[in-house]
Amino acid sequence: MTHHCVTRSLWLAAGLGLAALSAAHADSGRMMPRDMPASYTQECAACHTAYPPAMLPARSWQRIMTGLDQHYGTDASLDAATVNQLNTWLQAHAGTYKRVAEEPPQDRITRSAWFERKHRQIEPATWKLPSVKSAANCAACHAGADRGDYDDDNLQFPAGLSARQRRAWND
Ligand code: HEC
Ligand code: HEC
């Protein structure tokens, strides 16, 4: 990533820039399927980013959607009709991101082999910054996470990022 890209990312974050840019990187630039039900952002983005269905295999989503009452230490229960609607949609688009095959530990995207590989340059201290808190908080670094945009060109530095990490992210 060059300084030019950083400037461009800020523009994107401000909502000025645009769609054409991600065309060249369609793999990670547009990961939210167009047929996303409104209930997905209403119900599944209340506590964290609305994760793209492509990033977990079908079995992982199935377990998540049948265990919402005990969801990573919290209760995320929904009525049966909404669970059904969301699960059907998640299953339809599950596992379509490259190399998503294995069911990661705890059905966490953040424990997937591909996730660890993509983020291998990130220092352990970075995940613990107050501005990040958790690897599951994608939007801390991926300015377009809410739109399913994980393109490298659209990264933002979270507050407190070390100078060394800033340089590494600019490579
Ligand atoms: C009441 C809050 C809440 C709601 C609502 C909620 N979640 Fe979560 N979810 C959490 C918490 C807390 C975690 C753990 C985050 C962490 O480790 O930092 C989590 C983690 C996850 C993870 C794993 C993230 C990782 O580490 O890779 C997935 C996938 C997930 N949620 C999907 C969903 C889906 C799908 C819905 C909607 C049906 C949903 N969540 C609704 C609180 C919630
Ligand atoms: C602490 C900041 C940070 C957090 C939090 C974070 N990422 Fe990243 N992510 C990065 C950086 C930096 C890269 C680029 C790594 C590189 O190119 O070497 C990256 C790369 C990626 C890529 C590869 C993009 C490409 O075009 O190859 C994907 C996909 C991705 N992240 C998804 C996620 C998801 C999903 C989450 C949340 C569950 C997340 N990231 C959380 C910093 C972060």
Give the helix/strand layout.
Blueprint: H1 3-13, H2 20-23, H3 26-29, H4 38-44, H5 58-65, H6 80-93, H7 113-118, H8 124-127, H9 163-170
Helix pairs in contact: 5-6
Bound molecules: heme C (2 copies).
The site of one heme C (HEC) has 18 residues, from helix 4.
Stretches where pLDDT is under 50 for at least 5 consecutive residues are 1-26
**Percentage of helical residues?**
25-40%
Please summarize the sheet with the most strands.
none
What integer is the average pLDDT? 86
Report the C-alpha radius of gyration, rounded.
16 Å
Bound molecules: heme C
Number of strands: 0
The structural class is mainly alpha
Report on the structure:
This protein is 39% helix and 0% strand. It has 171 residues and is an all-alpha fold. Helix 5 (58-65) runs antiparallel to helix 6. The structure holds heme C (2 copies). The site of one heme C has 24 residues, from loops.
Brief digest:
The protein has 171 residues and is mainly α.
Keywords, please?
disordered N terminus, 171 residues, globular, binds heme C
